[in-house]
Design brief:
77% helix; 0% strand; mainly alpha; 165 residues
Amino acid sequence: MAIIPYTGATSEQLQHPLVREFLGVHNMFRQELANILNFTEQLLAGEEALSGPETQARMQMLIRAGSQYTQYLHFHHHGESSMMFPKLAEEGLEAGVIARLEREHDEIAGLIDKFSEAIRNLATVEPEVVNTDLRRLSEALQAHLAYEETHVCPLLTRFASWPGH
């Protein structure tokens, strides 16, 4: 997977192993969310009643993929908040930046919970609602990742191993 540079990235920063790994994880979250959105759109474009056996099997796939994705995203944000941000603060990451990142983590957690609730029970899944929830999550996550990368990645270059590990 290609590394997508963040605003202000230098070629030196983009070569740093921690920056490359951090961006790789973020790119994975971007790509998987795009895959889930695409899958949901295809599902909505299919069978109208959404009750046939093939559609039900696809809904189960959506539930599994969505649940796994949101668990990984929660875990990732928890690790950033509890281990990485405190160490980056010691290296000069501004308190206002950290406060914004934490607020965004909380906002994204709320969107994840809303999406998780929408897909919890196959019998009650409303694909249009799921699609709307995913789009809101996608918009918030895209903005968050871009802001976070711009502020965190330059500081990651000061470390030889993951801050807080």
